[in-house]
């Protein structure tokens, strides 16, 4: 069982070169901060990420919360 202090119900998945890399976060604000940092890196040319998705842990599984970025528009 996961203790509440280490539970991270927010997941940000960055897609770069066809590879999904997840990072887990304790709060929605922490997830949003990570998304902002990645979007800034994309804009500055420091990241080749083509997608950013945010998931939230709900009913025992990860549920898509938001598509935060897509290189396709």
Describe, in plain words, how this protein is organized in 3D.
There is one protein chain. The protein is an alpha+beta fold and 73 residues long. The protein has one domain. It contains one helix and four strands. The protein has one helix spanning 28-43, and strands at 10-16, 19-25, 51-58, 61-70. It has a four-stranded antiparallel β-sheet, covered by helices on one side. A hairpin with a 2-residue loop joins strand 3 (51-58) and strand 4 (61-70). The protein is globular, with a radius of gyration of 13 Å. The model has no long low-confidence stretch (mean pLDDT 93).
Q: Regions with pLDDT < 50 over 5+ consecutive residues?
A: none
Number of helices: 1
How many strand segments?
4
Q: How big a fraction of the residues is strand?
A: 35-45%
Helix content: 10-25%
Main sheet makeup:
4 strands, antiparallel
| Mean pLDDT score | 93
Shape category: globular
The number of distinct structural domains comes to 1
**Beginning-to-end CA distance, first to last residue:** 40 Å
Q: Give, in order, the helices and strands.
A: EEHEE
User: Based on helices, strands and strand pairing, what is the structural class?
Assistant: alpha+beta
How are the strands of the largest sheet arranged? 2-1-3-4
> Gyration radius, to the nearest Å?
13 Å
């Amino acid at each position: 069982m996961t203790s509440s202090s280490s539970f991270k119900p927010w997941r940000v998945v960055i897609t770069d070169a066809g590879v999904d890399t997840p990072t887990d976060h304790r709060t929605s604000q922490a997830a949003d901060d990570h998304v902002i940092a990645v979007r800034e890196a994309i804009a500055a040319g420091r990241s080749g990420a083509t997608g950013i998705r945010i998931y939230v842990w709900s009913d025992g599984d990860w549920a898509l919360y938001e598509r935060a970025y897509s290189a396709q528009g």
